[in-house]
Specification:
single chain; alpha/beta; Rossmann fold; six-stranded parallel β-sheet; 14 helices; 9 strands; globular
Length: about 280
């Protein structure tokens, strides 16, 4: 009878408390919420900014969750990340439906500028931006530095298309970052490229690179190259529709083909019918 019980499947909890060493060497509880096959940290923004001292930060949205249903390599990269924060109001709605609500949405495009502002007077925070089209990262660098009032962004590079398949180019990028004197790396080349690049090359960076963030379209937003959705649309979960209206040719497949199954998967999770693919 005991052997039978031991072999029964025990589902993973929807909310997972993780004890972490806090700054005062005591124990604090870090809560994660399970959405499909991914545990996502549950923070308020101010709480996260205070806690983030080092590590890899990924920012999943609906599209990432759908990719995680078929991309084992991406899932492994996510599992190795130190922080995984909720980048989507749709995920916030899903968490409420599942009975395990997120405290708030922590979009990378909100968290990154907030991080820079939080550390505006901290000379130990020096950022390198990797991503966007030629000239865009440079413009983002100039605008961020002007807004912060110091040279917080110390380097930038816009990689060529297909760089992730060019080992020589990737090593050149690593060298640029290592020579920049940066302590923070923001990678905005889209998913899954940015997560896989970070996962593959994280051990090649100098030890002074303490924080690595996947920041998606943030570099375009910071440069003013792409306009963000109005706040009220973002707050009600329609930023995706605004982005589609701005870039329909690039985003129609993502939103109307690749991601349409998300609600069905969430319903299956609610009914305890969802099974992780890996």
């Amino acid at each position: 009878m005991k052997d039978q019980q031991d072999n029964q499947f025990t589902p993973e909890p929807e909310v997972m408390p993780i004890p972490l060493a806090s700054e005062d060497n005591g124990l604090s509880v870090r809560q994660k919420v399970k959405i499909l096959n991914l545990y996502i940290d549950n923070f308020y923004k101010d709480e996260f900014l205070k806690k983030l001292k080092q590590g890899i930060v990924f920012t999943p949205n609906v599209d990432h969750l759908m990719q995680l249903q078929s991309n084992r390599q991406l899932l492994q990269a996510y599992k190795a990340a130190d922080y995984v924060i909720c980048d989507s109001q749709i995920l916030v709605y899903a968490s409420k439906f599942l009975g395990t609500p997120f405290k708030e949405k922590l979009a990378g495009s909100d968290v990154f500028p907030a991080f820079c502002h939080y550390h505006k007077d901290n000379p130990d925070i020096r950022v390198f931006l990797l991503g966007a089209a030629p000239g865009v990262a440079k413009k983002a660098q100039e605008r961020i530095n002007a807004r912060i009032g110091r040279k917080i962004v110390v380097g930038e590079y816009s990689p060529p298309w297909g760089f992730e398949n060019d080992e020589q180019e990737c090593h050149k990028i690593v060298q640029l970052i290592n020579e920049s004197n940066a302590t923070v790396l923001g990678v905005g080349v889209g998913a899954p490229k940015q997560e896989l690049f970070i996962s593959k090359y994280k051990h090649k960076f100098n030890p002074n690179i303490k924080i690595i963030m996947g920041i998606g379209a943030t570099i375009d937003f910071e440069a003013g190259n792409v306009k963000r959705a109005p706040k009220f649309l973002s707050d009600i979960g329609l930023e995706w529709f605004y982005r589609f209206s701005v870039e329909p040719r690039r985003l129609w497949k993502r939103y109307f083909v690749d991601d349409v199954g998300f609600l069905w998967l969430i319903l299956k999770q609610k009914l305890k019918l969802y099974k992780a693919p890996f």
